[in-house]
């Protein structure tokens, strides 16, 4: 495209001292307008950080109401309908406007070009467009929720969503549809960048595993999101135009909706977890001062998860009326996807083994991720087994399982990454002790919130109910108490990270003495990422080159 | 493209105005643009794929209902439209070729013909829709002429498939329209910019989808 | 690419080449004629009653050939990088996954094809009658 968004900010302007602030991407032309029209991948990453944080707290507010309602057995805080709307709001906002975009669009946007030594993503304007589409979609969805809400749950199952629900299903679906374009735009950008913008020397198997994770995530985004877009289109045309594809009165099959929906939504689970795995790999290698164990195995495991993730969607449908032969096939395939996931867990542990581990906040978050993800993954195997699933389907066991993956896994990983790269993104250091306390609090609060839900599910508490027998109350009270701690643990980073923006110490360019190209440039990086072409030598995780002592003194 | 890829460019002494600052050279930029569009087309395949999956499931479950329902579509208009799209595919492909050779007059003419054919396609489609509505061939019509319930599934799919395809044609025509305007204004370099190749690829894809929609909706159920 | 200005000049092509009205027509024109022939064949096959309901399968096979021609020549896949073919191929392979596993359900449901889909109208009326 001919009209170039920016150019000619160049090495010529370099001054020996104080160049960081002048040339950093943050310092240049500070006005709201310059931020809203920016095509700099770093600034767009920050725009995404702000918007996903906002959506996180909207979804979190809904979660708070759910936990408050469930404190007592009677449905006293919310009406039946109100409760349905609140958990739908929670699901829709958290899944599509927080979990799916958060790591690829915030950290991925910021870091992928830096990590591979490129000046920007391949399509900077498309990148900005993706943010606006995300905001537009989110506005639609939140608007629908506020102007009356949706009561279908985030899954929009037919025929309820098409024939019966008289809430704002179409509006929400359109919002999600629009955000799908945003996801696709990000995915295209990441894949094309990785394929075409690596400088000489940055071979495929020299890329940081975070970049590999974003690459694998983008593959899933691109191949699954269109099917969600189609199924939502069919849903909306059925509601608005009467073009009923899933209408049982015409011989239509509501289960077909579930097939198409889960063709997206199961891989979407991997959209939400793979980037987290990438972040954790970077953090664990850095704070163990160890080369990552089994780099190639990590790469193949990521790709295997991305591909096999498409073969397992039917395990959401064991009780739906799907053929039992299909159920058994899907069950078997679901067990297979556990293999690459386990490879990753073992490799993280092997990386830490005999490492010189230090417990910085991001390392605590990352270690929390490994434990919680393992827990969530193993309970996933329970659910992949047909007979066990018949017992546990649609109970709190399922809720606990996916929260261990999504919140325990992905959110921990996001915080690990946010803390790890915060000095790089903002040029400031946050108070380490406060961050360590928050990380521990989050681990503790999370387990207190969600572990009781495994037990609740096993003793028969169904999900999506707001009133329940007294026998379940003790577990619900524990869970709600944990949620209070968890809420505090989420608010703490908001406090000290914002504090650090103003009062935090200035960060050196490599505060953690980490390897990786992004640490070779200033903190915050200059507008075009590198003042000189970055040096690409050795492997990515050269934490203990053979001839040197493992921990050399920092020369910053 | 061979021209842009020539290694004779000495560093950045002569930067093409078409080259964005974050790319090293035009070849890299062209590769990125082409790959980006091919990936987008893969997502488009899966987008329509959801619809084709629905068609497949119901055609297998209700073969008779689908054969009967499909016999009601306007095969003449459908086939004429196939011919129109194939012809426009030819002119679009030639436009891309001409752009690569820097032949501005030829590009202008070929794009104009492509747009013309696309408009005729939409006109024919509109007439066909009018006939369908006249025959009450929409699922919510109280006088829907076919008895078997799955016929309504077929006609839901008919409207969704042709409607989404028509939207893609509209997007393509809009893109061609902008490019035609820019070509006449000479506001971009034919050889250095990727946009004609990108539009050509997209148009080829729109062609491609119709090649499958046409047999599924129009040729089905004719052999009786 | 020794171009100082962008406007008015499109590379160093020979003047005659730039003025000619059309680029070389081959192979696109040949492919186009083949596509037309295939279109006609497809229509004939569709009306050929010996095939009955299966005619659609033959038509789809022809459509596959036509699609391959369009991709190779009209969309220039012939000269594209391998990774672009891979992108297109990924779309097709994932489509096969979607079709395959979805049909794995429908084709193995108990009873005749479509039996699981009957709306339980009669069962309901029976139940009501029993009440």
Protein model, in words:
The complex is a heterotrimer of chains A (556), B (224) and C (131). With 556 residues, chain A is mostly helical. Chain A has a single domain (41-520), classed as Up-down Bundle (Cytochrome C Oxidase, Chain A), CATH 1.20.210.10. Chain A has helices at residues 19-23, 32-36, 41-69, 80-116, 124-146, 160-164, 169-196, 209-241, 254-288, 295-308, 324-352, 361-384, 386-392, 396-426, 432-458, 473-503; strands at residues 428-429, 505-506. Chain A is globular, with a radius of gyration of 23 Å. Chain A starts with 18 loop residues before the first helix and ends in a 50-residue tail after the last strand. Chain B has 224 residues and is mainly alpha-helical. Chain B has one domain (24-219): Cytochrome c oxidase, subunit III, four-helix bundle (Four Helix Bundle (Hemerythrin (Met), subunit A), Up-down Bundle), CATH 1.20.120. The longest helix of chain B is centred in the last third of the chain and has 37 residues, at 149-185. Chain B is elongated, with a radius of gyration of 21 Å. Chain C starts with 14 loop residues before the first helix and ends with a helix. Chains in contact: A-B, A-C, B-C. Chains B and C meet through helix 2, helix 4, helix 5 and helix 7 of B and helix 1, helix 2, helix 3 and helix 4 of C. Chain C: InterPro entries: Caa3_sub_IV (IPR011743), Cyt_c_oxidase_su4_prok (IPR005171). Chain C: This is Cytochrome c oxidase subunit 4. Chain C: It is found in: Cell membrane. Chain C: It is a multi-pass membrane protein.
Number of strands of chain A: 2
Q: Sketch the major β-sheet of chain B.
A: none
Number of alpha- plus pi-helical segments of chain A: 16
Main β sheet profile of chain A: 2 strands, antiparallel
Summarize the largest interface: chains and residue counts.
B-C, 78 and 71 residues
**Structural class, judged by helices and strands of chain A?**
mainly alpha
Number of domains of chain A: 1
Count of individual domains of chain B = 1
**Could you state the CATH homologous superfamily of chain A?**
Cytochrome c oxidase-like, subunit I domain
CATH superfamily of chain B: Cytochrome c oxidase, subunit III, four-helix bundle
Low-confidence stretches of chain B: 1-13
Number of strands of chain B: 0
The string of secondary-structure elements of chain B, in order, is HHHHHHH
CATH topology tier name of chain B:
Four Helix Bundle (Hemerythrin (Met), subunit A)
CATH class of chain B: Mainly Alpha
Specify the CATH class of chain A: Mainly Alpha
Helix content of chain A: 55-70%
- Give the count of helical stretches of chain B: 7
**Overall mean pLDDT score of chain B?**
89
